Amino acid sequence: MAVPERLTKTTDITIRAKEIDFISRFNDTWEALREILGIMRPVRKTPGTKLTASKATVVLQDGNVAEGEEVPLSQAKVEPVVFEDLNLEKYRKAVSAEAVTQFGAAVAVQKTDDAFLKELQGVVMDRFYAFLQTGLLTSTETTFQMAVSMAVTMAKDKFKRMRKDYTNIVVFANTLDVGMYLGAANITIQTREGIEYVKDFLGANTMIISSEIPSGTVVATPADNIVLYYIDPSDGDYQELGLDYTITGETNLIGIHKEGNYGRVIGETHALMGMKLFAEYLDGISVVTLTDDTTLGTLTVTSAAGTGSGNTKVTVEPTLETGHLYKYKTGASAPSVEYGQSVRNWTAWDGKSDITATTGQYITVVECDNTYKALKSGNDEVTSAS
């Protein structure tokens, strides 16, 4: 009987084939994540470049313009936010001949390869989840449903105001938070390559479920904002060093080399990679915090004579939390402020500049989130320069 064409024979099962299998399974996770998100841009690092994200800001001018007068320009700018350089990372795993003798190759080699693979993938994902929590759009909600809804809405609103197109909105939520919500909802969780997700959830195209997102935190951003930045292991002419790493596929995310160390009678697996998932626009990431505490926080506001007649220098303690904003109002008396109250129409303040106010009036400063909900408040009688 003729041998079937393209039959895989014992001579075909080589170290190189195992290296390709390892790389293929490693890449499968990123391809699955890319398909789940809807889009994720892989960008190959060019030697000598730095990893940067962007922050878009607009300084609005006063909109109260008299009839016939020229409307002042509001200045918009996009500034780079530089991160640490993308480093080439080296990993190694070794299995002894004694381990193979006692447990067999299927356990001693294959099982440890699987664990090695998961740990390498985890290194990248852990960093990404930590990075997401540095998003600059913030809000506070009391229910999981509202947290997801506001996270999605804030991310959409930001990209619309930046006049940037986006496709899928992706939400990241904690496993336990999702479990508590889904206990009363008829929703199916899907799993692919170890990634748990839900499609079309409360305005989000995709919700990624992970224990790496802290309980009580919901994050959202357009999938277009997510970039996979990587070093191609074939860039460095490592063969000139006598190093031969196997790479495969269109996007070379990892290089693998297996070899036997006869001096120690062990089998070694070497991995070479440099990968980072990040978002191009930090202020395109919304981070919503769940809280049961709806008590208005206290700010200690102090007014002193500023620079220039009629100006007051205001200081506030404690300092402004990341992602929050200051708003203020002056008047003959200090207005009552409640937790969650909208201060959208109050005057914005950068926390540093002198404020024009009249001595003897009161100035009330509110710390709010990006939806202008009051979180903390304080006031003081105004002292301005004469």
Describe the protein.
A hairpin with a 5-residue loop joins strand 17 and strand 18 (311-317). This protein folds into 2 domains: 15-57 and 81-289, phage-related protein like fold (Alpha-Beta Complex); 293-381, Immunoglobulin-like. The protein has helices at 15-37, 97-103, 105-132, 144-161, 175-182; strands at 41-44, 52-59, 75-82, 89-96, 137-141, 169-174, 190-192, 195-201, 204-210, 217-222, 226-230, 254-261, 266-273, 275-279, 286-290, 297-298, 300-305, 311-317, 325-331, 347-349, 355-356, 362-368, 374-381. A 7-stranded mixed sheet has the order 5-15-10-6-9-8-7, with helices on both faces. The mean pLDDT is 84. With 386 residues, the chain is an alpha+beta fold.
Unreliably modeled segments? none
- Strand percentage: 25-35%
Question: Structural class of the secondary elements?
Answer: alpha+beta
Q: How are the strands of the biggest sheet laid out side by side? A: 5-15-10-6-9-8-7
Considering the chains and any ligands shown, give keywords for the structure.
Immunoglobulin-like; seven-stranded mixed sheet; phage-related protein like fold; five-stranded mixed sheet; elongated; 23 strands
